[in-house]
Design goal:
mainly alpha, globular
């Protein structure tokens, strides 16, 4: 008599593996960000009360938005070092007890600096050639990056020399790229590819994230919620904007603070070409040709949204607004949970707490549910069944792209870390959402198919 299937299944622990990301650091940044936003809103009263030599206006400008991000990042960095002691983690690759003489590592550091400076020059050329970087909201990002460029080049020298004195292996992927350029020492193309994946991600997404800081921040600082407190649609939109500002501010910090002493360095970029395609399709400039107005898979033709279709049903409007705010809060929480380690297409440690205890992809699940429930693509003002079919089909395509992204991200992390493999297995059996979806998938597809992806070259 054979044993039941449940007896043959490996018994997993009651809790997922310990998270590499501290659970509190993101909330420290959130507290500082909210405090600063409140200060910006109250600035006219502060100026009047203290008699400050400053215009009695709310601080809603683009540089105030940038300062909010800086303060948020600094608070999380200080907390990480002072309280969490992340600089002592073995995963940093730093041995603070070992301090090499400068003369011992100066050649290594010089090679690495050459690789870094050449990398930044290439990224600068990419910015120069990309027309979209010199129009609209990207102009602010180019202004910020342009001002920061010279200090970045100058400060990189003492930073690299200082860090190389303590690194267990100072010949990292930046060194390998520098060695390739200088042609003086043995270098490894695998490490060079790792270098460019990491910096390609930083270069592309940092400019985008900085560009979207000002609009949302200004709308929150200048908003007058007392004027629409009894309007569920307007209240919903106001709360959506607050949560999106939280997501963008903390997400931008994640792209900037990829530093080893914070244990937030990019350990690897996604090596799968499919992962890059799926991710880049969702961001400018690529998104404009696919999901934007007139794009190939535009899904909002003659749609009016939830506020239009539920108008006149106040109770239902409040319930619907609450549901959409809940989904947006999950989306923002998924970013906050990363703290200073958020970024697309990267492996920077395994995150198993917060919303990631319920599903491996809380941001994708909540974002797509939000789109379906807010846009309501199957309801159109034109009365055209063709519009209904197109909108519904193409929003389904968008959701499929996010599923594709999720699968390629999983393939990347499964290949990188045994802890993620343990987390993956735990979620399959115990994740509140993931385990149920896994059971449904197993019933529909009893022979699981591994994601077919090709490494990027």
């Amino acid at each position: 008599m054979s044993a039941p299937a449940s007896a043959l299944r490996p018994q997993l622990p009651a809790s997922p593996p310990a998270s590499d990301v501290p659970s509190r650091v993101g909330f420290v940044g959130l507290a500082v960000l909210v405090s600063y936003i409140l200060l910006c809103r109250a600035w006219p009263e502060v100026v009047t009360t203290l008699g400050l030599p400053s215009p009695a206006e709310r601080l809603s400008g683009p540089f105030s938005a940038l300062l909010a991000m800086v303060l948020t990042g600094l608070s999380m960095a200080v907390w990480s070092v002072v309280v969490e002691k992340v600089h002592r983690n073995p995963s940093t690759g730093i041995d603070w007890s070992r301090k090499r003489p400068v003369g011992e590592i100066i050649d290594v550091s010089a090679t690495k600096i050459a690789g870094l400076w050449a990398t930044w020059a290439v990224i600068g050329m990419f910015y120069c050639l990309g027309r979209w970087y010199w129009d609209g909201q990207y102009l602010f990002a180019m202004q910020v990056i342009g001002v920061a460029a010279i200090p970045l080049f100058v400060l990189s020298v003492p930073y690299v020399v200082w860090l190389d004195r303590y690194l267990v292996n100072p010949r990292d992927h930046a060194w390998h790229f520098g060695a390739l350029l200088l042609g003086r020492e043995a270098w490894d193309m695998y490490e060079v590819k790792k270098h460019w994946r990491a910096w390609g991600i930083k270069g592309f997404f940092t400019a985008f994230m900085i560009s979207i800081l000002p609009p949302g921040f200004a709308s929150i600082v200048e908003a007058q919620p007392a004027q629409f407190i009894d309007n569920p649609v307007m209240i919903g939109i106001f709360l959506f904007e607050i949560l999106f500002v939280i997501d963008v501010q903390i997400g931008t910090v994640g792209y900037l603070l990829t530093l080893r002493p914070l244990d937030a360095h990019i350990r690897s970029g996604n090596p799968f070409l499919a992962g890059w395609l799926a991710a880049l399709l969702c961001y400018p400039p690529f998104v404009f040709g696919f999901m934007g107005g007139g794009g190939i898979i535009q899904y909002e033709y003659n749609t009016a949204g939830w506020g239009h279709w539920l108008a006149g049903h106040d109770l239902l409007l409040w319930i619907w607004a609450g549901w959409l705010v809940f989904l947006t809060a999950i989306y923002a929480w998924a970013t906050v949970a990363f703290g200073i380690r958020f970024s697309n297409l990267t492996y920077r440690g395994v995150l198993t707490n917060g919303p990631y205890r319920f599903t491996r992809h809380p941001a994708y699940v909540s974002k797509n549910l939000f789109w379906w429930c807010s846009i309501l693509p199957f309801l159109v003002t034109s009365g055209s069944m063709v519009d209904v079919i197109r909108n519904t089909f193409f929003l389904g395509v968008v959701s499929a792209i996010y599923y594709w992204r999720a699968r390629t991200e999983e393939a990347h992390l499964l290949g990188e870390d045994a802890k993620y493999r343990a987390y993956y297995d735990w979620m399959q059996q115990h994740g509140m959402i993931t385990s149920r979806l896994a059971k449904l998938w197993k019933r529909a597809n009893p022979r699981p198919v591994q994601p077919q992806v090709q490494p990027a070259e």
